[in-house]
Automatic annotation (TrEMBL), chain A:
This is N-methylglutamate dehydrogenase subunit A. Gene3D superfamilies: D-Amino Acid Oxidase, subunit A, domain 2 (3.30.9.10), FAD/NAD(P)-binding domain (3.50.50.60). Pfam families: DAO. GO terms for molecular function: nucleotide binding; sarcosine oxidase activity. It is found in: Cytoplasm. GO terms for biological process: tetrahydrofolate metabolic process. It comes from Paracoccus thiocyanatus. Keywords: Cytoplasm, Nucleotide-binding, Oxidoreductase. GO terms for cellular component: cytoplasm.
From TrEMBL, chain B:
GO terms for biological process: tetrahydrofolate metabolic process. Transmembrane segments: none annotated. Residues 881-968 form the Aminomethyltransferase C-terminal domain. Keywords: Oxidoreductase. This is N-methylglutamate dehydrogenase subunit C. Gene3D superfamilies: 2Fe-2S iron-sulphur cluster binding domain, sarcosine oxidase, alpha subunit, N-terminal domain (3.10.20.440), FAD/NAD(P)-binding domain (3.50.50.60), Probable tRNA modification gtpase trme, domain 1 (3.30.1360.120). One of its GO terms (molecular function) is sarcosine oxidase activity. Residues 492-576 form the SoxA A3 domain. It comes from Paracoccus thiocyanatus.
TrEMBL record, chain C:
This is Sarcosine oxidase subunit delta. GO terms for biological process: tetrahydrofolate metabolic process. GO terms for molecular function: sarcosine oxidase activity. It comes from the Bacteria.
Length: 416, 976, 94
């Protein structure tokens, strides 16, 4: 079924009787060519591109809970391609280009909104680093602008310019960045994949990987064994648990990242703004809630909930940066388990087990990567070769010394 | 006016307030909602999506409809529940989320087009043309969405964060909570009793039945008085416990001054972090409604709330009301209102064989529609004999009660369906130490709640080894509800489930039809439960409707869990005053006041404030000042506070061995009385921090670190000492704050120092470059002297106990007046270190290696040190970019840090990128801008011209590659 | 969270700085044969268990002890804490 304004009008006039399920609820088949473990954003996007862009068939996505219940269902919805390092920037810019045509591509309004991201700087050294990064972005074909203090003031006059512990000196602006409706992205890919014949199987937890002679041949699930030619794992937050079934240890720790939303407010904040002197980033959803976040709690956790000190710390950052939000109320806090990798960058690679592929380690930043991650992982699964923009995301880069450490803090996940 | 007799309001005093500009009067004890009701105001707000007219729906924090903008100016507080706003004299409130007057909201046009706005419609449209989303569709949606608006001004009030510890935290001060608190208090436990309301009593205040043959308020008052008199009890009214965190930590907000016109000298709110050894959750229950067509008309409300308004606030939404109930509780409302003189048009009750319990008519049937756009005028009742319209101006609805289990699922435990009660009860795996009592635990009758509270306290305290006994509890009612499940009234029209977000039974049906059936999909597709009330009156009903559609029982359809906060918490109080200039502590150097007296401009350096430069009269730009400071230092002598550099004292017989393992280069071999430059790597082999290591004695070293890494390096050294090599006999202490350290640099440095040392030989032979010593200065002041140089000049750093820092700076200036002593700041420091080619934070950015810094040979291969092994990995060894100096070919050209480097003629893109400029400045010594940068194969490219590209600012500059020493490349000055 | 410091009793976790898996106590010998592979594993690979986790916390705002805390990563329940120094002297983290 094709979605359009005309269709909405027609259905409205005929009592909405014609709307079909967004996807089927298929029973698992005994065997597939490709099994994607994880029905979050990356898993669904992988299945979508595997079918649509690479023409593969007999694909299943196995999700232990409901579709989109991964971190795609709980994040601060920011999309951007403002990275420094050559291992990252082309990949995220590829992702940004996919975002720009995504809704027309999968015929679903994911509310991709290019309202811009403004990263503020508060010291000269920070500005130098932003200049280097902005130039790297331009050199990779992305967009970037360096704003001085007055340029920032013109964009966001409500920021704390006059009474701040760390004065705003300027900012790095990427106008093409912005936000997207996180659930819409998951559902758009899910519906698109389903339309391509992909079996999306919910409430189907993978409990084992069947490996024979160093080659994967299927999975054990709560709904029985399923044979597979290739298995792609995209379960950020739980990557170590799943890959342990293949006897692998990963350069990853699971941490909890909290995110926050306020009660709905009339338009307050134009785009995405990040604080440079404390960890705080914020945007406003179309419904009016201020959506914000900050540091991870900082200890290993699978509990999907965080603690009060970080709630206070993040809010302090917000209040320090934009004191006019004080009378808004925090409506909800949620915590997600995320894969914090050892260099802050992801992994999209084959594994020592033949036919078993891994997509993991997305740290804070998996949402913006969803289209490119899905595309690159599908490319790897379909062709056996890494996509050109994801070639640096190798599993062996740690042992070989090719880490992609944007923050320069080394092998300590809670600092990335 | 619909004010009734009785109630817990102080009629002796009038409080005037305004709503939408009109003035009304209420009394102490009123909430804004009860006062509006007593004044006959039924229309108070508009819904989120369809802008439907709405009235007060509840009497508590679950309120979905009656949201107002409270106060004005910078104190404006959007989305405030009128049911929670305690009335004060002069209160100002305004309705929100409408265009035009509240009674004639232009956006109510949305309601006419509601068929087009069905669940999830926006995912299916607005996709064409692409550019229209940001330009047209989204701005329109955003303007229409949102609820209240912010003032956009900083909050003028103050806030506090405080900490409390207790044995038992009792959450909720109703029957169960009071009885729990009393039980624990009498056992001598340290008790905190918190309630979100401004008076204790909970539902006891809303009911008319007696405790021990007296009004319940008498018992409440007695218990409150006893508790208040006990030293081991703290009562926190107006306090919402909003979150249950790990290990017995609860977050709570006390609204200290929200009931006053202005906080005055008090804080407005306090954020309490309560560490409780045990807790009793006695938060009561929230009534649920029964969706039917147009069930959102102003005047339709929860029956229990209607009763609360009548009994506690002496207010009724109308003179003639009807009740729609599927349980006996609804009849109580009829009885109580009738007793207060309100006319009961009918009680509509679908249960078989239902009868009146008093003097009011009962109709066995269903309410299936309602009339009255801006206020209810009639309901349509379907009964066995057919349908009829019954006139009434208000309708109380009771569909049973949902236990208020929220906090019990903050650790992600799932509430459990109880078929007998037709309700979700608290999860078994709730927060450790939290015991549920009263209506939360399904013990909703008054007698049961009282008992259950006492029992819960006994159980919770037993876990702590405290023996408690249930007190004598008053006799109370314990009527059964006799509920017959009725989740909604079937029909064609729109029947609201979630009022604020306009989610109807039809939307849930559509979600089912489109396979958005898992409860999380249902919520997200329809926005159910996402409004400011977090679905407190909607979620369970929605689940039941979905369960009906799927044909699966409710527990199989799903459960919802709750996340903090229980109800909205202002960002101001979470920030707690650590905002503005107080966002982070401010560390001042020992010479701060001296620098200020010298006219210094200060700059933030991490937590520190450092003197950036010292402008003098007549200087018009900072550059002019910095150039002068640099030249004065290079020509005479400059003085700069470098206290912020980290200092770690390392002592013990194994100190040398320890440092050998910490530093990439050797330290054990350092002679006593000498200093060595030291490079620390991270264990992953990347360059981390540099500084000096001075050996003051056989078993005594002093390590310095960069300012930024003072804390992390010390932490790391303690890690190495305690976790890796505890067998080494070595002790560490951070002395960063203990010693004031001042750099004295320039050709006159020795002459200046000679004037303050106490008979210490500073000659080159006796105290050469890289020497160190403990000595006294200024006539007996103990000091440490290091002959080290960051500027490239003959230079020393002298350390004295911190409290003498200022005096030392003054003395140096005084003694050096004829030598040209000049204070310099971090800017001049930066210029001189770039001229000398020293790495700083921009080069040691955590992404560079010793090899890139030109220090590769420092990493000893003859010993094991942190990071040494990993620094030899292929990827690091293959890194070809190295530190070079860069000078513009045209001296007038700028050099800008952050520019990227390219070979001349090469395309400017990522694949041709050969490096970057890390630091740049104007060098008064060279007479042009200069830079340091990392360039591919840089060491072999001296003299070559490369391109510095800064497309971000439209700059392309030709740069000559030069050695990274713009001054005194042979190092003669510092050895002089 | 509250951490049961073996010397100081229950302390708020905010006083501490977290590092990670206590396996970091078991640093390989940098001069040994095959050190690079051993270090790659030591520096980068983690068990990252869902369940009991022995982990390092530094009492930075306190007595500057490094502790080995045993904590369940699925519930955050803490089962105990020891001085890391003692753990190391007893042979390191198992």
């Amino acid at each position: 079924m094709h979605f359009s304004g005309l269709r909405v009008i027609r259905e409205a006039l005929t009592g909405h009787k014609g709307w079909k399920p967004l996807w089927r609820n298929p029973e698992p088949q005994p065997a597939y060519d490709y099994i994607i473990v994880g029905g979050g954003g990356h898993g669904l996007a992988t299945a979508y591109y595997l079918a649509k862009a690479f023409g593969r068939a007999r694909i299943a996505v196995l999700e232990k809970s409901w579709l989109g219940s991964g971190n795609v269902g709980r994040n601060t919805t920011i999309i951007r391609s403002n990275y420094l390092l050559p291992g990252n920037e082309p990949f995220y810019e590829f992702s940004m280009k996919l975002w720009e045509g995504l809704e027309q591509e999968f015929n679903f309004n994911a509310m991709v909104s290019q309202r811009g991201i403004l990263n503020l700087c508060h010291t000269d050294a920070q500005r130098d680093a932003y200049r280097r990064r902005g130039n790297a972005m331009l050199l990779a074909g992305a967009d970037a602008e360096l704003l001085d203090r007055e340029g920032v003031r013109a964009m966001a006059p409500f920021l704390n310019f006059d009474n701040a512990r760390f004065p705003i000196k300027g900012g790095l602006l990427q106008r093409r960045a912005g936000t997207a409706r996180h659930d819409g992205v998951a559902w758009g890919y899910a519906r698109g994949a389903d339309m391509q014949g992909v079996d999306l199987i919910q409430n189907c937890e993978v409990t084992g990987l069947r490996i024979k002679a160093g080659r994967v041949c299927g999975v054990e699930t709560t709904r029985g064994p399923i044979a597979a030619g290739k298995v792609g794992v995209a379960v950020a937050g739980a990557s170590s648990r799943v890959m342990a079934m293949a006897g692998m240890r990963l350069p990853i720790e699971s941490h909890v990242l909290q995110a926050f939303v306020t009660e709905g407010l009339k338009p307050t904040i134009p785009g995405v703004i990040t604080f440079g002197a404390g960890h705080f980033y914020v945007s406003q959803s179309d419904k009016g809630g201020l959506v914000f976040g900050g540091d991870i709690d900082g200890y290993n956790s699978y509990a999907q909930r965080g603690n009060l000190p970080v709630i206070e710390d993040v809010t302090e950052g917000g209040m320090a940066l934009m004191p006019m939000i004080g009378r808004a109320r925090l409506l909800r806090v949620w915590g997600g388990a995320i894969d914090m990798s050892m260099d802050g960058s992801p992994i999209i690679d084959r594994t020592p087990v033949e036919g078993l592929y891994l997509n993991a380690g997305w740290c804070y930043g998996g949402f913006k990567a969803t289209p490119a991650s899905g595309y690159a992982f599908a490319h790897l699964l379909a062709t056996g070769r890494p996509h050109e923009t994801a070639a640096a995301y190798r599993l062996d880069r740690f042992a070989r010394g090719h880490v992609i450490d944007e923050k320069g803090v080394g092998a300590q996940p809670n600092l990335h | 006016m619909t004010r009734l007799a009785g109630g817990l309001i102080d009629r002796a005093r009038n409080l005037n307030f305004t709503f939408d500009g009109r003035t009304y009067a209420g009394h102490p004890g009123d909430t804004l909602a009860s006062a509006l009701m007593a004044n006959g105001v039924r229309l108070v707000g508009r819904s989120f999506k369809y802008h439907r007219p709405r009235g007060v729906f509840s009497a508590g924090s679950e309120e979905p409809n009656a949201l107002v903008e409270l106060r004005s100016g910078a104190r404006k507080e959007p989305n405030t529940r009128a049911t929670m706003a305690e009335l004060y004299d002069g209160l100002e409130a305004a309705s929100q989320n409408h265009v035009g007057p509240l009674g004639f909201d232009l956006l109510a046009v949305n309601d006419l087009f509601s068929p087009f706005f069905a669940a999830g419609f926006y995912y299916k449209t607005f996709m064409w043309p692409r550019a229209f989303w940001e330009k047209l569709y989204e701005p329109a949606i955003r303007r229409a969405a949102g609820l209240g608006s912010l003032s956009m001004q900083p909050d003028p009030d103050t806030y506090d964060k405080r900490f409390l510890h207790c044995d038992l935290l009792v959450i909720g001060g109703g029957a169960a909570g009071l009885s729990a608190a009393l039980t624990a208090a009498r056992a001598g436990a340290r008790v905190i009793l918190a309630d979100e309301d401004f008076c204790l009593g909970g539902r006891l205040l809303a009911e008319s039945h007696l405790l021990d043959d007296a009004p319940a308020t008498e018992w409440v008052a007695r218990v409150q008085a006893e508790l208040a008199a006990l030293p081991n009890v703290r009562i926190l009214p107006r306090t919402t416990v909003f979150g249950a965190f790990d290990h017995g930590v609860y977050g709570a907000v006390e609204r200290v001054a929200d009931h006053l016109p202005q906080p005055g000298a008090q804080v407005r709110q306090t954020l309490w972090r309560i560490t409780a050894r045990g807790a009793v959750l006695a938060a009561g229950a929230i009534e649920r409604h029964i969706p039917f067509q147009n069930n959102d008309r102003p005047g339709i409300m929860l029956a229990g709330a209607m009763r609360a308004y009548a009994n506690r606030w002496a207010a009724s939404p109308a003179r003639r009301v009807a009740i729609f109930t599927n349980n006996d509780d609804g009849h109580r409302t009829a009885l109580d209102l009738a007793a207060k003189g309100v006319e009961i048009a009918a009680v509509i009750d679908p249960r078989e064989g239902v009868r009146t319990q008093g003097d009011y008519p009962v109709i066995a049937g269903l309410v299936e529609n309602a009339k009255g756009r801006l206020g209810l005028t009639a309901i349509k009742v379907a009964a066995r004999g057919g349908s009829q319209w019954i006139d009434c101006d208000a309708l109380g609805v009771s569909g049973g009660w949902n236990p208020n289990v929220h906090l019990s699922s903050h650790h992600r435990g799932r509430p459990v369906w109880d078929a007998a009660l037709q309700a979700f009860l608290p999860a078994k795996d709730g927060p450790p130490g939290l015991v549920c009592a009263g209506a939360v635990a399904g013990q909703g009758g008054t007698a049961a709640a009282l008992r259950s509270g006492a029992d819960a306290a006994v159980v919770a305290l037993a876990d702590l080894g405290i023996t408690a006994h249930a007190p004598d509890l008053p006799r109370a009612e314990d009527a059964a509800q006799n509920l017959h499940p009725l989740w909604h009234v079937p029909g064609k029209g729109r029947a609201w489930v979630d009022f604020q977000n306009d989610v109807t039974v039809k939307d849930i049906t559509l979600a089912h039809q489109e396979n958005m059936r898992p409860v999380e999909h249902l919520k997200r597709w329809t926005t159910l439960g996402m409004a400011t009330d977090q679905g407190k009156t909607a979620n369970v009903t929605a689940l039941a409707v979905m369960s009906e559609l799927t044909g699966k029982p409710i527990p199989e359809t799903g459960t919802t869990i709750f996340r903090p906060p229980y109800s909205g918490v202002s960002l101001s109080v979470l920030g707690g005053g650590d905002t503005g200039p107080h966002f982070r502590p401010r560390r001042l150097t020992p010479t701060h006041e001296w620098a200020r007296a010298q006219g210094a401009v200060f700059v933030e350096a991490g937590p520190w404030m450092r003197a950036q430069y010292f402008p003098r009269p007549g200087e018009t730009t900072w550059r002019e000042t910095v150039d002068r400071e640099v030249l004065a230092t290079r020509k005479g002598v400059g003085i700069c506070d470098v206290t912020t550099l980290g200092k770690v004292d390392v002592q013990g017989p194994d100190a040398g061995e320890f440092l050998d393992r910490i530093y990439a280069n050797a330290m054990k071999s350092l002679r006593v009385g000498m200093v060595r430059y030291g490079l620390m790597l991270r264990e992953d082999g990347t360059a981390w921090d540099d500084g000096t290591c001075a050996r003051l004695g056989d078993a005594h070293y002093v390590v310095t670190t960069t300012t930024a890494n003072a804390g992390p390096v010390y932490r790391h050294m303690e890690f190495c000492r305690q976790c890796l090599w505890p067998e080494l006999d070595v002790q560490l202490i951070s002395t960063t704050d203990a010693w004031a350290q001042i750099a004295v640099a320039g050709p006159n440095a020795r002459r200046l120092l000679e004037r303050i040392v106490d008979g210490f030989d500073l000659s080159n032979g006796a105290f050469p470059f890289m020497a160190c010593a403990e000595l006294t200065v200024c006539g007996g002041l103990r000091a440490r002297l290091f002959r080290i140089s960051f500027s490239g000049e003959l230079a020393y750093e002298i350390a004295v106990p911190a409290r003498y820092g200022q005096a030392l700076a003054e003395r140096l200036m005084e003694q050096g007046a004829d030598l040209g002593a000049t204070p310099y700041g971090t800017e001049a420091l930066g210029v001189m270190r770039i001229e000398k080619g020293h790495a700083a934070g921009n080069e040691l950015n955590g992404q560079t290696t010793a090899q890139m810094l030109g220090l590769g040979r420092m990493v000893s291969t003859r010993k094991d040190a942190i990071g040494a092994v990993m620094s030899r990995r292929e990827g690091l060894a293959a890194e070809r970019r190295v530190l070079v100096g860069l000078q513009p070919v045209d001296a007038a050209d700028p050099v800008v840090a952050g520019a990227h480097l390219f070979a001349e003629g090469a395309p400017q893109d990522t694949s041709s990128d050969q490096g970057w400029i890390s630091s740049a400045c104007f060098s008064p010594h060279v007479g042009s801008a200069i830079g340091l940068g990392f360039l591919m194969d840089g060491a072999a490219r001296m003299g070559e011209v490369v391109v510095g590209a800064n497309p971000l600012q439209g700059q392309t500059v030709r740069l000559r590659v030069v050695p990274a020493h713009f001054i005194d490349p042979e190092g003669e000055r510092l050895r002089d | 969270m509250l951490i049961p410091h073996p010397l100081l009793g229950l302390r708020d976790a905010q006083e501490f700085t977290y590092l990670g898996d206590a396996a970091l106590l078991n640093r390989p010998d940098g001069m040994a044969e095959g050190a690079e592979a051993a270090f790659a594993e030591y520096v980068y690979l983690r068990d990252n268990p869902a369940g009991l986790h022995r982990e390092l916390w530094f009492h930075e705002q306190g007595d500057r002890s490094w502790l080995v805390v045993t904590r369940d990563t699925t519930t955050h329940q803490i089962l105990g804490a020891e001085l890391a120094r003692d753990v190391k002297l007893k042979g390191g983290a198992a």
